[in-house]
Amino acid sequence: MALTGLEIYKLLPKKNCGKCGPPTCLAFAMQLAANKGSLDQCPDVTEEAKAALGAASAPPIRKVAIGEGDRQLVVGDETVLFRHDKTFFHETGIAIQVPDTASVDEIRSRVEALNKLEFERVGMMLRPNLVAVNNLSRDPEKFAAAVKVAAETSKMPLMIMTTDVAAMDKAVAAAAARKPLMCGANAENLDGMVEIAKKHGLPMVLSAKGLDDLAALSDKVTAAGHKEIILDPGCREVGGCLEDLTNMRRMAIRKKFRPLGFPTVAFIEEDDPVQAAADASVYIAKYASIIVFKSIETWQLLPLITLRQNIYTDPQKPIQVEAKVYEIGEVKPNSPVFITTNFSLTYFTVVGDIEVSKTPAYLLVVETDGTSVLTAWAAGKFTADKIAEHMQKFDVAGKVNHKKIILPGYVAVLSGKLSDLSGWEILVGPRESAGIPSFLKARWTA
């Protein structure tokens, strides 16, 4: 059972030094009890206290890593039910199945197509996360050969799907170096699957019908010394699966029920592509750690990974770009200079509209803690003094042969002071960046 704040407080050094962040040890204890802090924040905690408090300070949902390298998928390690309480940490992984009944050339071609399935949005690359090789042939040799081809071709980690222990053993041997996710363990084959997972140090999916049976399986596997677990509640209908995923999350976070405190997986069985995308959007919101598709089209994937990005972006920390001078197009000394903030969405919107104008330009991005133009101005983060400071810091004058700079129209009030501070002519640009092309045609001369 999880410890209360007062029980945790009794084991802390009670120095009230504030080194952990909160001003008192009691406040820190309350944070630990609410899963909003980590015990390693306290530099003076004793080894005895660490042993006693380890379970209380550990995340209620275990972190599990799949694969290696820059495409490694990390799931779990979540601490809240709702992202506005704190944030969600590890976005839902999207797995796409490749059947082992396909030919070697078909498998390689499909995996290569999945490698290329990626999009850039607000400076971030959005893509699927796993190639799931499914043992539809029921032939261990054919399955192992398919996994080997996928392992050689895929840039993404692998998910190996079979309930046959012998087939799993052969397939894992063909791809163990890629640290794949084993999927197919259940009450009937548990011992054999656990043995393979422990031998190679691999994460595994446990499947059961109903949360009671799933918790019993989880307890059995952890008692055997393997904790790299992902849970499948067994339901394949969206309403029942949503109920199970929500109950598992609540039990893990609110009740500190460790047998269900692991990442989760949901399977999309719907054949209609529109309904399949709708079902997946439900699971991304609540609370699948991985979603497995039979197949997916580009038009299905793009809205899903955009939704995923929005949900898993920290609401207390906007996406930002680096504050500096950017070159948009093939700039020249007589190119115009625009000003904006370092809020990622604002930056990419302005860049897109400058590109539409077909006029190469410099863009001075000012550090505003990732807030938009009006928000930053209202908060005192986008001021004439700060803009002038950035102009000097990034040597805007050394990049052009004129002294004109274009200010966002919404903050025209800054133009007078900015002109006095910088000695430049301040042009008040359009309020919305969509007006940049027409503004340049009508107003810009170096």
CATH overall fold name of the largest domain: TIM Barrel
Can you tell me the residue ranges where pLDDT is under 50 for at least 5 consecutive residues?
Answer: none
**Overall shape:** globular
User: What share of residues is helical?
Assistant: 25-40%
CATH architecture of the largest domain: Alpha-Beta Barrel
Radius of gyration: 27 Å
Count of distinct strands: 17
Question: How many helices?
Answer: 16
**Count of all domains:** 3
- Overall mean confidence score, pLDDT: 92
Span between N and C termini?
A: 71 Å
Task: State the secondary-structure class.
Answer: alpha/beta
Q: What kind of sheet is the major sheet?
A: 8 strands, parallel
**CATH top level class name of the largest domain:** Alpha Beta
CATH superfamily of the largest domain: Dihydropteroate synthase-like
Strand order of the largest sheet: 10-9-8-7-6-3-12-11
Please give a structural write-up:
The structure is a single chain. With 446 residues, the protein is α/β, with parallel strands linked by helices. It folds into three domains: 5-57, Electron transport complex subunit B, putative Fe-S cluster (3-methyladenine DNA Glycosylase II, Chain A, domain 3, Orthogonal Bundle), CATH 1.10.15; 64-312, Dihydropteroate synthase-like (TIM Barrel), CATH 3.20.20; 325-443, Rossmann fold. The chain has helices at residues 5-10, 25-33, 47-57, 104-115, 140-153, 165-175, 190-200, 211-223, 238-253, 273-285, 298-312, 344-357, 373-378, 384-393, 415-422, 436-443; strands spanning 64-66, 73-75, 93-99, 119-121, 124-126, 130-134, 158-161, 181-185, 204-207, 229-232, 265-267, 290-293, 325-328, 337-341, 361-366, 404-407, 425-428. The strands form five sheets. An eight-stranded parallel sheet has the order 10-9-8-7-6-3-12-11, covered by helices on one side. The longest helix is centred in the middle third of the chain and has 16 residues, at 238-253. The protein is globular. The mean pLDDT is 92.
